[in-house]
TrEMBL record, chains A, B:
Species name: Alkalibacillus haloalkaliphilus
The protein, known as: 7-carboxy-7-deazaguanine synthase
Residues at which Mg(2+) binds: S42
Annotated gene: queE
Residues bound to S-adenosyl-L-methionine: W39, C40, D41, G82, S126, P127, K128
Entry-linked InterPro entries: 7-CO-7-deazaguanine_synth-like, Aldolase_TIM, Deazaguanine_synth, rSAM, rSAM_sf
Textual note on the cofactor: Binds 1 S-adenosyl-L-methionine per subunit. Binds 1 [4Fe-4S] cluster. The cluster is coordinated with 3 cysteines and an exchangeable S-adenosyl-L-methionine.
Lineage of producing organism: Bacteria, Bacillati, Bacillota, Bacilli, Bacillales
Function: Catalyzes the complex heterocyclic radical-mediated conversion of 6-carboxy-5,6,7,8-tetrahydropterin (CPH4) to 7-carboxy-7-deazaguanine (CDG), a step common to the biosynthetic pathways of all 7-deazapurine-containing compounds.
Amino acid sequence: MSKIPVLEIFGPTIQGEGMVIGKKTMFVRTAGCDYSCSWCDSAFTWDGSAKDEIVQMTAEDIWNRLKEIGGDLFNHVTISGGNPALLKNLNELINLLKQNEIEVALETQGSRWQDWFTQIDDLTISPKPPSSNMSTDFAILDRIIHNLTDHNRLEQTSLKVVIFDEADYQYAKGIGERYPQIPLYLQVGNRDVHGEDIDNLTSTLLNQYEQLIDRVVQDDELNNVRVLPQLHTLVWGNKRGV
Amino acid sequence: MSKIPVLEIFGPTIQGEGMVIGKKTMFVRTAGCDYSCSWCDSAFTWDGSAKDEIVQMTAEDIWNRLKEIGGDLFNHVTISGGNPALLKNLNELINLLKQNEIEVALETQGSRWQDWFTQIDDLTISPKPPSSNMSTDFAILDRIIHNLTDHNRLEQTSLKVVIFDEADYQYAKGIGERYPQIPLYLQVGNRDVHGEDIDNLTSTLLNQYEQLIDRVVQDDELNNVRVLPQLHTLVWGNKRGV
Ligand code: SF4
Ligand code: SF4
């Protein structure tokens, strides 16, 4: 079996955001990203700061570790990054999880296609808005959505856009217009990914969440969306591994 | 057209809980309930305190009112109560909404079946745990789930149990065991439905949410659940009409 670069395996906990918000799950966080978003809350996956924590693991190593810490307490695993879609051989892990009747969720920004996308039960494509300083390659994103449509995977797919400012909001509307067939989730951006004052962070995030709701409910071009906060940040702040 | 007793029509806002949490929606709240849960957060729908606010409306009246306040800002309507399942003639409203390409969500405790259940896009059945002081008629609940299964409506159905204490938690586990084929949502109970100090309420609810998560993640009999807070209470406290 080939190796997968892993930075964190933790859980069980709950998924704090997106299409399966609240779901009991384990997390596997892969190392490496082709983006470098200005506000990345997982920058340690790609900025070198956690280089020494990266472990090269086979799919079986990862499964063993999941069972070691999660025991019988889970039937859902979320793979996040970094960008797990950089890893062609992730299919080995996905297959192994499915063989063990584990549901698999995965989040990626939509900069790369992998054939194993069609095996994911809850696939979140989260294109990055202007405030990230990244720019979306819409030719690739179109192809990804097209492939998922061809493989009849729309029920397992959602789009998620994090909103920090007006330009991000407009970007999200563009995404909604471009892919009206895919459920769209808007998520409040966390400007303070290193802050340690949880009470303060919670009230700031809830205020921003309220503002985003106010905006969306008055916008007749965004009738078909879901607007969500990050529950794990409300509960645990910026702590890692929960 | 026959009349429907309505207590509130408001929105657009977001759905704060359950299977379509975060969804942009309008709310129609019907009057009347066959239960009287100890911690009911909508007691004004049945305790007589808002008797003078009840308006008898036809389906068309309701639709006109929705358009009047919601304009073009919605394509989803949530019907709640009270117990809207007391109203056989609600099918007139549901049909009218569907004719206008509006998706319909509805919440009921599962004490009555109505044939129009099979027309609902997002049906939440929320049986009430012991702390409510109500007791579940499982013969009826079984029949409801059976009918929904027969009509191939499981993808549009979820179960939701509000948890206040240990007995409620055990009750929720029983619900999960009894209906393993239906997605189960556990929701943190709000003990303080009249409190006006939002900051305090938010931090209490987030603490209780964290405790419920801690409990669920250590319980191998509840692997397949989603654990959620009430987002509207986190954002707006106990205010009505948001
Ligand atoms: S795509 Fe995700 S992991 Fe990569 S830099 Fe952006 S936020 Fe961070
Ligand atoms: S079933 Fe719902 S509306 Fe009726 S008393 Fe209980 S909580 Fe209140």
